[in-house]
Write a structure and sequence with these properties.
Structural class: alpha+beta
Largest sheet: 3 strands, mixed
Order of helices and strands: HEEEH
CATH topology of the largest domain: 30s Ribosomal Protein S19, Chain A
Number of domains: 2
CATH superfamily of the largest domain: Ribosomal protein S19/S15
CATH architecture of the largest domain: 2-Layer Sandwich
Distance between the termini: 63 Å
Radius of gyration: 22 Å
CATH class of the largest domain: Alpha Beta
Strand order of the largest sheet: 1-2-3
């Protein structure tokens, strides 16, 4: 459910203080635990290190992210692949095919020289 219009968006005051007067391209990444903070237009271009419960993941804020929360871009759960033995065999075959294609392309480039 969205926050009421009367209250306005929640943006952590500390984050606004940290980016005040800085230029996005020259500023170091800003470390934060405030996952609930909404991304405002002033934050565009800045890099944030958002805590996911274990690590700090780097998030580069773009114009498309305005209005979303910082926590949406720092996932807290790690997906473990399904499959098992059959899945490993399929991945190995795919990897071997990629290596063969890369070596064939490299050989074709060398023969043209």
């Amino acid at each position: 459910m969205a926050r009421s219009i009367k209250k306005g968006p929640y943006v952590d005051a500390r984050l606004l203080r940290k980016i005040a007067g800085k230029r996005p391209e020259s500023a170091a990444p800003i470390k934060t635990w405030s996952r609930a903070s909404e991304i405002s237009p002033e934050m565009v271009g800045f890099k944030f290190l958002v805590h996911n419960g274990k690590d700090f993941l780097e998030v580069l804020v773009s114009e498309d992210m305005v209005g979303h929360r910082l926590g949406e871009f720092s996932l807290t759960r790690k997906f473990v692949k399904h499959g098992g033995k059959m899945q490993k065999e399929l991945e190995m075959k795919k990897k071997e095919a990629e290596i063969a294609a890369a070596s064939a392309a490299k050989a074709a480039v060398e023969t043209k020289k």
